[in-house]
Amino acid sequence: MYPSLSRMGRLSVGLAMLWCAAGTACLVCPAWSQAFNPKDLDHLEFFVESIRGLAVTTNNSQEAYEAQNEFTRLEMCFADTPRFPHGCIRWWEDQSPYRRTKERACPFTGGRDFGQDDHDKPGYIPDGCNGKPCARGGPIGDRPGEHKQPCYFETQAEQGFSTEGPFGAFLLARPVSQEEDFVYYGAYHWGVLRHRVSDDSLHFKVGKQVALTGPGAVRIGKWQLIEVHRDADNNLQAVVNGVDVTEGTPNVEGRYRFRYLFNNNKGQGEPAPMYGDIAAMIVYSDELTEAERSAVRGYLDGIYGFMGKDSSDLE
């Protein structure tokens, strides 16, 4: 059973930013709290939000470029500051109850080891979503010998998660215009949320691909909370900014897996990875009630203020 939504959430108090050596910043705590927190619900598999836990590096030195690997300390992680002037995100703190056993150089003690250890990391945008930070993914860079893949996040292979049953996924994102269909998140063919550029509709793939929405479900260049839910009978539902945009009765069974954000398989194969901004993602491995979904939306809206207004106001 889920805990009561009226239960008080955790109070976070602390510094909003810690400055480390070599021009590296680690955003560790929000400056506010709310009565409800997504962590109050059971079956939380994954939870990242841009107001907390962004480990940001601005080290553009050749030494950092040569030292970069998954065990490199934060202060020595490479950042492509000509591409992202405010720095790049090495780690993003997962606030789920998951407890990893294999430690690397990650500064966060709980949750999954989530981020990017290669040279091409998502950029840190300090005020990209209604004055709050966000992560910016991008295409493969154009500097020969340096950029080999798009800017995306991933969990370590042993820390990905999956479910054959119900789930609920919330993604606060602003996609930009692309020439080809693209993927917001997923893991190859085991659980991919796909955007069809010809009509801005959403499609979901777990083994087979099904259409979730009709045309115009997502607005390019605008902030939207995109939700995908699956119930115990494998029925899918798509919700955008609190509005049910599901078309027909999409139904797909199979194991849903998650490893990549802004991507589906290290940028290899089709479809292409998403370009644009992401401020939060929350995934539960169970079906949420309408009241619980509303509580999660309200939590995110209380921080980013995207509901009930034209998202162009959030530039």
Helices and strands in order:
Elements: E1 18-20, E2 24-27, E3 44-49, E4 54-57, H1 62-67, E5 88-92, E6 114-115, E7 123-129, E8 132-137, E9 153-155, E10 161-163, E11 167-175, E12 182-186, E13 192-196, E14 201-206, E15 208-211, E16 224-230, E17 236-240, E18 243-244, E19 256-258, E20 260-261, E21 272-273, E22 276-284, H2 290-304
Parallel strand pairs: 12-21
Antiparallel strand pairs: 1-2, 2-4, 3-22, 4-5, 6-9, 7-8, 8-22, 9-20, 10-19, 11-16, 11-22, 12-13, 12-20, 13-14, 14-15, 16-17, 17-18
Radius of gyration: 18 Å
For the biggest sheet, the summary is: 8 strands, antiparallel
Listing every helix as H and every strand as E from the N terminus to the C terminus, the arrangement reads: EEEEHEEEEEEEEEEEEEEEEEEH
- H/I helix tally: 2
CATH architecture classification name: Sandwich
| CATH topology call | Jelly Rolls
- Total discrete domains: 1
Would you tell me the overall average pLDDT? 84
Helix content: under 10%
Q: What structural class do the secondary elements suggest?
A: mainly beta
- Taking pLDDT < 50 over at least 5 consecutive residues as the criterion, the unreliable ranges are 1-24, 26-33
Reading off the top of the CATH hierarchy, the class is best stated as Mainly Beta
Name its key features:
eight-stranded mixed β-sheet; Jelly Rolls; single chain; mainly beta; disordered N terminus; 315 residues; eight-stranded antiparallel β-sheet
